[in-house]
Write a structure and sequence with these properties.
Layout: H1 5-10, H2 18-24, E1 37-38, E2 53-54, E3 56-59, H3 63-74, E4 79-83, E5 90-91, E6 96-99, H4 101-108, H5 112-121, E7 123-132, E8 135-148, H6 149-162, E9 167-169, E10 172-177, E11 182-187, E12 190-196, E13 200-202, H7 209-217, E14 222-226, E15 230-236, E16 251-255, E17 259-263, E18 269-275, H8 283-286, H9 292-303, H10 307-312, H11 317-320, H12 322-325, E19 332-336, E20 345-347, H13 350-353, H14 362-378, H15 383-409, H16 412-430, H17 445-448, H18 456-467, H19 470-485
């Protein structure tokens, strides 16, 4: 059986738009209004004997790995999951993500129950406000559901455990034997080797051990670059006093190239703030002590882009001290030469095509890859079928991420060219000359009214067509216009 990208990406239930599908699914009322989720751990999976044989093995119990396992289990396939972390019971301590049309469509492959539960706990995102120097310069209608990443994991974990899928927690992958199709894991100082008769799925994150083993032993080529900024976040309770219109929980705010503000499902607000290397204020992101001097310096830095949020949400120094308690983090954008490095190993999610927070596509691209891989394996397809269906779009996701990186961490000429291009394309869109942009068909409201999810390769081709003349023109204009307007500083 051969699978094309079109078959997998566009098959049922996408016979309706996302708006139509979501309208038919009621929320689970008993969970509505509750942010935290609690899942009691079931009895541990039965210990495995050394040299035992398994069929499909999923390495990593994040959203992508769990969705892959769920689709396989629903199809009656034998699947085993391994995860390096302990099994959590309370799920509300990670970071917010926005499930857009792509992510919701991928989740719907596992049935409508998960979508109903997401509706019950998520916070709708109706718009994205782009701010520059405390002024809103653009407001884009959006379709998405804000949920904490570990909440999404919990919803999938509940379904996977209900089907009796064995999940072995606190198991660390040590090595992969490519010739004998065998994996070695460690737990508590003891090791165990297991044969894999089906597919080994690497969904073990940005620093994937499965991927690194394939680089070393199977000739996989990986291109990787850093996000271009280091980030930290600070949280604040929802104020008891009414908020002004410019501080709206249904809107997510992009603070120029420096940060992101949003309201969580439980009402808490967070501000993720990052600075690029070379920025004169970068030291404050890496400061470790909440001294009065550091808190005052942080306030001065944030007032350049987030004054309205400091005034109404992050109001006092006790709140800002939380910034220094959070660990500074960054990550990598990457792409692999293929998502099937061998005839029995497949990569998905951040292990395969990590993007960056400023794309808004991290969890969504991961869930989409998981849904494609799970669907193919469930129908007795191969990892090569998966690569044929997904490689091109994984490469395009990398191009999408690097494009957005130039908007956030690019030089002044790149930012000028991008600003110029977006302004002209926006005018053409208003005049009906352009139907939509790459943003419209990802997080944009327009994506929810399409009868299909646009592939990343299609989005990049669309964007390249719109930018091929305008972007070079913007770069030529840089010496004149940006010396005047200062918006790209």
């Amino acid at each position: 059986m051969t699978f094309t990208a079109g078959q997998v990406l566009l098959e049922a239930p996408q016979a309706q738009t996302m708006v139509e599908m979501m309208a038919k699914i009621p929320a689970v009322v008993e969970q509505a209004g509750s942010g935290a989720l609690h899942l009691e751990a079931p009895a541990p999976a039965a210990p495995l004997q050394d040299q035992a044989r398994l069929h499909h093995v999923v390495m990593g119990a994040g959203p992508g790995g769990l969705l892959t396992a769920l689709l396989l289990a629903q199809a009656g396939k034998k699947v085993t999951v391994f995860e390096m972390r302990e099994r959590p019971t309370n799920f509300y301590g990670s970071f917010p993500v926005v499930l857009n049309t792509r992510g919701l469509q991928a989740l719907s492959k596992a049935g409508t129950d998960i979508i109903a539960r997401i509706k019950s706990i998520a916070r709708p995102v109706d718009s994205i406000g782009i701010m520059n120097k405390n002024k809103t310069v653009a407001n884009t209608p959006t379709y998405g559901m804000c949920i904490m990443r570990d909440q999404a994991m919990a919803l999938l974990l509940k379904e996977v455990e209900a089907l009796g899928v064995p999940i072995h927690w606190q198991h660390k992958l040590v090595q992969v034997d490519m010739n004998d199709k065998k994996i070695t894991l460690e737990r508590g100082g003891e090791s165990i080797s297991l044969f894999v008769d089906g597919c080994l799925v690497g969904t073990d994150g940005n620093y994937s051990k499965v991927r690194r083993e394939c680089e070393e032993k199977a000739g996989l080529k990986v291109e990787m670059q850093e996000w271009g900024l280091t980030m930290r976040f600070v949280k604040a309770p929802n104020p008891s006093t009414p908020l002004p219109a410019e501080v709206d929980g249904s809107c997510h705010y992009v603070l120029g190239s420096d940060g992101y503000v949003c309201q969580h499902p439980d009402g808490t607000w967070s501000m993720s703030y990052g600075l690029q290397e070379g920025n004169p204020d970068a030291d404050i992101v890496n400061a470790t002590e909440a001294t009065p001097e550091n808190v005052a310096a942080l306030r001065r830095v944030m007032e350049k882009q987030a004054a309205v949020f400091l005034k109404h949400v992050f109001t006092d120094d006790e709140i800002l001290k939380g910034f220094f308690d959070s660990k500074a983090f960054n990550g990598h954008i990457l792409r692999c030469s293929t998502l099937a490095p061998t005839d029995w190993i497949a990569l998905a999610g951040d292990a395969a095509h990590a993007v960056a927070p400023y794309t808004g596509e991290g969890i969504n691209s991961s869930l989409e890859s998981a849904s494609i891989l799970g669907t193919i394996l469930a129908k007795n397809g191969t990892v090569n079928d998966y690569a044929a269906a997904r490689d091109v779009d994984a490469q395009a996701a990398y191009e999408f991420a690097t494009r957005n990186k130039s908007l956030i961490a690019g030089n002044a000429s790149q930012k000028c060219a991008s600003t110029f291009t977006m302004a002209i394309v926006g005018l053409l869109k208003k005049r009906g000359c352009v139907r939509g942009t790459i943003r419209d068909f990802t997080l944009g409201q327009m994506a929810s009214t399409e009868d299909r999810v646009w592939r990343y390769s299609e989005l990049v081709e669309l964007d390249n067509q719109q930018r091929k003349c305008l972007y070079p023109t913007g770069q030529l204009c840089f010496p004149i216009c940006c010396r005047c307007c200062g918006k790209c500083d």
